[in-house]
Amino acid sequence: MKNVLIPVLFFNLIACTSETQIDLSGKKYSEKKIISILKNKQNTEIITLNKTKASDTTLIFLKSFTNLKELYLAQTLISDHGLLEGLTKISTLTSLDLLDTKITDTGLKEVVLSNRNLSFLDLTDTDVTDEIVSSLLELKELKAINLINTDCSIKTVNKLKIKFPFCKITLSEGLKIITF
């Protein structure tokens, strides 16, 4: 039994201390503390800052993270300013979670245009509208997008489905959530 447990525990220890992934979800750290944790970690590929005090200053700090592939920013204080000044300087993102942030079409358009390999986007509870569709159509391979509680309509979904027929699109109409 010991021989089975030791490798499992060792594997979990390695996974938790990975230099390519940082998860600060829900931590009550100040933004200054978040940035100090991220300092000198420019090779990180996955950063999760959901429900933290991360704001535009954090995003501007992240612009030197040229290996960043996945960024999770749900329920943070970011806005278009942070997207424009930080994330547009990165071109490696494949997954971006912006759930319940203050972003609009203006900031998202530029991030999408500089990160054409985005394949997963969560825009739930943001201020994006049907105007974003032309930028989304510039993506190479969109696999999933959440548009719940946005001002995007079924017209946007139809346009996206033409270019990305296998993309999972979730939209809300009134109180109904519809997945295409």
Structural notes for this entry:
It is a single chain. The protein is of the alpha/beta class. It has a single domain, classed as Ribonuclease Inhibitor (Leucine-rich repeat, LRR (right-handed beta-alpha superhelix)), CATH 3.80.10. Helix content is about 35%, strand content about 15%. The protein starts with a helix and ends with a strand.
What's the helix and strand layout?
Elements: H1 2-16, E1 21-23, H2 31-38, E2 46-48, H3 56-61, E3 70-72, H4 80-85, E4 95-97, H5 105-114, E5 120-122, H6 133-136, E6 144-147, H7 154-163, E7 168-173, E8 176-179
Parallel strand pairs: 1-2, 2-3, 3-4, 4-5, 5-6, 6-7
Antiparallel strand pairs: 7-8
Structural class: alpha/beta
What proportion of the residues is helical, as a percent range? 25-40%
Contiguous helical run count: 7
- Give the low-confidence spans: 1-17
CATH fold category name: Leucine-rich repeat, LRR (right-handed beta-alpha superhelix)
Report, as a whole number of angstroms, the end-to-end distance.
Answer: 47 Å
Total individual domains: 1
Q: CATH homologous superfamily name? A: Ribonuclease Inhibitor
Largest sheet: 8 strands, mixed
Give the SSE string: HEHEHEHEHEHEHEE
The CATH architecture category equals Alpha-Beta Horseshoe
Reading side by side through the largest sheet, how are the strands ordered? 1-2-3-4-5-6-7-8
- Determine the mean pLDDT: 90
**DSSP summary, beta strand count:** 8
Instruction: Give Rg in angstroms.
Output: 18 Å
| Portion in strands | 15-25%
Gross morphology is globular
Indicate the CATH class: Alpha Beta
